Amino acid sequence: MKVGIPRGLLFNDFSPLFIPFFRYLGIETIVSDETNRKIINRGLEIVPAEYCFPTKVAYGHVDNLLKKLEKDDFIFIPYIANTGKPTTGYKYCVTCPWTQSTPDLMKSAPKLIKEGINLEKLVSPSLFFDWGLNHIENQMKKALAKMGHSTKNVRAALQEGLINKEKFDKKIEEKTKEVFNSIQKKCKQEKYKNEPAFLVMARPYTAYDANVNNDIVNKILDAGYLAIPLELAPIGTIDISKQMPKMYWIQGQKKLAAIELLNKNRNLFGIDITYFACGPDTQINQQMICRAQKPFLTVEMDEHTGDAGIDTRLQAFFNTVKSYLEIGAKQTSKVFSVKLKGLDKIKGKKILVLPPMTEHNCALSAVFNAYGIQSRVLEVSPDETLEKARSCTCGLVCTPYLHTTDAMLNFMQ
């Protein structure tokens, strides 16, 4: 029996767990090829809607797997709603909507079904890693039962996979200490006091895939600078939960904690990699820019992004950083906190307005009104160009963000 696992999205996070799990049970795992131009192009042909670029590439990886697997083999794409390890101070660590619903995205692609994906052979357990081992075990038993495999040794296989992942995470932690101790030691030397290092703030499925990030890491290295992935940043003890109490998205937690790390290290500068149509990034990009107390670069990418544009922006940023270090500029940006009020604080005193992003908010507003909190859903802007919202936002943000911003601006006016 064989099971295929597509690269992309959460593959780098959880392959150290799932591949040993299946190996322990005697199930051979087949992995899709590393991302290449052919896989990207196939993803672009198959994708049924305008998702972010990494999600489009994921379609290409599933298509690549179909060409490797036989008729009776299975494809393993789990629903992973959370990673189980939030950063300090947080309770939740949720993945983005497209990531956690990857199986459904694949099922909704007519061209992928035409290529031969058998929905009966798609194995997709629902995994909540903060629900404990018993939950994961039960879900994986259901997955193996669908595959017609014995469920006898699932607990032992899971423990094997979890031990392997813990070793993997431990090695990353050790490498993190090694890298940052080296940087701090080096920067204390007079001849290196103005030499910068760059923290590449990207998700694991983009940071380590040169064909998805336009080889930006090697571009930094070729320029003579050290490039450090976000996973090697010592942000585990940084607590931003009081400043941003409702940041439940795991990558948002990491990125905002990384900003605090940048502010505390004179020679460390951030390069944030984001993608057009990324809703979660849209919500925090301005937060990151405002909180960074030094030069900070955000690079937006998609399948149309070329090397020339990336090279130009990087070189300009390198020059800015060099000047910043040479003149000894002071960090002056103000760090602010988001203050939340309980519903009882506004009951009978203020109107609670909800954005028009979804019809569910109409039901939610009715619940608030029934509870005694005056509430209403903002009207959708009549301006189809959303010009007012675009003038108040930075970068090519997602459409729901623009609609929400425009509705708020109209309401305030």
Extract low-pLDDT stretches. none
**DSSP strand tally:** 12
What fraction of residues sit in β-strands? Answer: 5-15%
Distance between the ends? 63 Å
Radius of gyration from CA coordinates: 23 Å
How many domains? The number is: 3
Average pLDDT score: 87
- How many strands, what sense, and barrel or not for the largest sheet? 4 strands, parallel
Shape call? globular
Estimated structural class: alpha/beta
Helix count from the secondary structure assignment: 17
Q: Percent of residues in helical segments?
A: 40-55%
What is the succession of H and E elements? EHEHHEEHHHEEHHEHHEHEHEHHEHEHH
Kindly report the spatial arrangement of strands forming the biggest sheet: 2-1-3-5
Describe the structure.
- The protein has about 425 residues and is of the alpha/beta class.
- The protein folds into three domains: about 1-165, no CATH class; about 170-325, Rossmann fold (3-Layer(aba) Sandwich), CATH 3.40.50; about 345-410, no CATH class.
- It contains 17 helices and twelve strands.
- α12 links the parallel β9 (about 270-275) and β10.
- It is globular, with a radius of gyration of 23 Å.
